[in-house]
Amino acid sequence: MEPISTALAGIALFKSAVDGIKGAISTANDVGEIAGYLDNLFEGEKQVQQRRNQKSGIGSVGDQFGIKTVAQEIIDAKLAQEQMQEIASMVDMRFGHGTWRSIVDERAKRIREAKEAEAAARKAALQKQKEFEESLKQALMIGGSIIVALALFIFLFVTIAQATVLTLSIL
Asked: Among 72, 93, 105, 120, which residue carries the largest CB count within 10 Å?
């Protein structure tokens, strides 16, 4: 997806999530009933922020730094921020003070844990790769040593055979 269409998709996703939450919040019995909308809300907000924070993109310099583009990105981010505050207040009023903070904190914790798990997996894969390389080096060294030993052994047999033939021919 192109950066501009990504930003448009992000703000559209965000707006549809806000509308869905506003429509469902009054009848929701628990946060789980609006969880899908919350996921879309966070994803849309993430896309809007990524677009705003993006330093370079596809298109001309005029497109990237033009007043219209810059203004639209800033306005979209501000609107998203305002609507997030509104949703936070609605969730807290419906499910009790601190619910929104708990949701945001838990989400941040899960994102952090996922990143840590990914980093640990990368580290384990790197360690496994190093171990494989070390094992391969050892196997090559052992194989090389065996080949050198066999070559010396064959050379020794050839030398002894030639000496024996030479000795027999003198007698």
From this structure: 72
